[in-house]
Amino acid sequence: MQKTYYDPADLRKFGKITEWNEELGNKFFEYYGKVFEEGALTAREKSLIALAVAHTEQCPYCIDAYTKDGLQRGVTKEEMMEAIHVGAAIKSGATLVHGVQMMNKVNKLDG
Amino acid sequence: MTNIKTQSLHKRKSNLAQSNKQLEILSYGIFQNGELPTFKDKISETNQFPLKAKKLEILQINVGYMCNQVCEHCHVDAGPDRQEIMTRETMLQCLNVIKSTGAHTLDLTGGAPEMNPNFRWFVEEAAKAGIKDFIVRSNLTIIRANKKYHDLPEFFKKHNVHIVSSMPHWTRGKTDKQRGDGVFDKSIQALKDLNAIGYGMPNSSLKLDLVYNPSGAFLPGNQAAMEKDFKKALLEDFGIQFHNLFAITNLPISRFLDYLIASDNYEDYMYQLVDAYNPSAVSNVMCTNTLSVSWDGYLFDCDFNQMLALPVNSKVKHISEYNEALLENRNIVISQHCYGCTAGAGSSCQGTVA
Ligand code: SF4
Ligand code: SF4
C-alpha cells in the first residue's frame, strides 16, 4: 500500500493519464504545450507565473516541475522567491479583502 | 563561501576517481534492473546501433588535466594537483597529424591548456598548419591567475585562435557556486580584456564563444533563449560582448557523477536524460565527427570516453600510429553517459546538435 498521498515519482507518470482517456488527455497536453510556448509573454515569464501559481495551488508536483524549469531557463532563486511572494500577496490580499464583507455585515447587523 | 572542494577526486582518493567504478554505476542499478533502458537498447529502437564514426571534422587534443580551478562538476576531474601533462614529444606526434589531417577544426582542451609548459610553442606550431578553425578552450580565470598569463589575449589574437570559455551564469552567486569563489569577477575581467582587443565584438573575426552548462542536477534550457539572456545581462551589467553561446548538458561522469550521488540526484538525473532522449540527435553526436587525443597520445571517441578510459575501437590506438582512413567508420564505444549527448536538442562541445 502506498503510504503517502504524494510520490515524487508519480510526476513522471503524468503522461499516462491519456491511457484512460486518450482524446481528452491528448487535448489537454496539446493545450498545455501551446500555453507555454513563446508568445506575447516569453517562455521564461510564463515559467515564473507557473511557479507562483504552483505555490498558491500548493501542488507539490508543479512546484518540483517549475522550480526545475526555472533553473533550466537560468532563472535565479531571487527571481523565484519574488514570484512566489507575488502569489502569496494575492492569496493574502484575497483573504483580507473579504474583511470588507465582514465589516459590511457587522455594520448592518450591529451598526 | 561556496562549499567547493579544493582537490580532485584523484587527490582525495575517491572511489569515483577510478573509471571502472564510474562505469559500474552507469551499468548497474536502474539500468541493470530494467527500470531504464540502456543506451544501446535505446538507440537500437531506431536502428542506430552500432553508432559509427563518419568523416573526421574535429580533432580535439587534451594537453593535460592540470587546472587552476577545481570546478564542482568538472568531467575531467582537473585541478592544480593533477600531474598528467602532454610532453613535447607527444605534441610533436600530434603536430604530424595536425599537418596532414582532413579535419577543419583543431580543438585544444584540458584542464587549463595554458598551464602546459609547452602550450605556446604548440599553438605557434599548430597555427602554421592553417587549420580553418583553431579553438582553445580557455577557462578565462587563467588569464588573470598570474602575471605570466596576462598577455594570453594578445597571444591568442596573434595566432587567430578561436576562444571558447565556460560561464555557468551571468550572476556571481551561481557562477562561484559551481566554479569557486572569485571565479565570476576574474572571468568578467578576462572577458573585458578580450573584448578590448577585439575578441567577441560584433563582426569581429576574433571569435569568442561561451559555454553554458547547468550549475546543478538539471538540463540546459533552450540554447537560443539562454544566449539572448546571457547577452543582455553581460552587456547591461558589464558592457561585455561575445559571439555564440553553446548550451552543454553535464554528463554523469567524474565529479558531476560524484555530485549527483552525494546530493541524491543520480537516479532523477538519469530519468531526466532518458525522458529527454531525442532520437534525431543521435546521428549527430560529437563522436561521429570528432576524435579525442589524451595527454599521453591515446585516441578516444570523445573527451568523456577519454575520462572513462574507454579507448577507440580500432587497430589504431595511439597518435603515433595515426591513420585517419582506418579510424573512419569505426564503431563508437558507448555507455549510459551517452544519454547526456542525446537529451533534448542534443549536446556537444559546440552546443546543440539537433
Ligand atoms: S571545468 Fe574546466 S576550468 Fe573547471 S576544473 Fe575542469 S578543466 Fe578546470
Ligand atoms: S559520450 Fe562520447 S561516445 Fe557517447 S554519445 Fe557522447 S560523444 Fe559519443
Automatic annotation (TrEMBL), chain A:
One Pfam family it belongs to:
CMD
Annotated ranges, domain Carboxymuconolactone decarboxylase-like: 23-101
Entry-linked Gene3D superfamilies = AhpD-like
User: Which molecular-function annotations from GO does this UniProt entry contain?
Assistant: peroxiredoxin activity
Quote the InterPro entries the UniProt record gives: AhpD-like (IPR029032), AhpD_core (IPR004675), AlkhydPrxdase/COmuclacdeCOase (IPR026445), CMD-like (IPR003779)
Q: What is this protein called?
A: 4-carboxymuconolactone decarboxylase
State the species of origin. Seonamhaeicola algicola
Q: What is the lineage of its organism?
A: Bacteria, Pseudomonadati, Bacteroidota, Flavobacteriia, Flavobacteriales
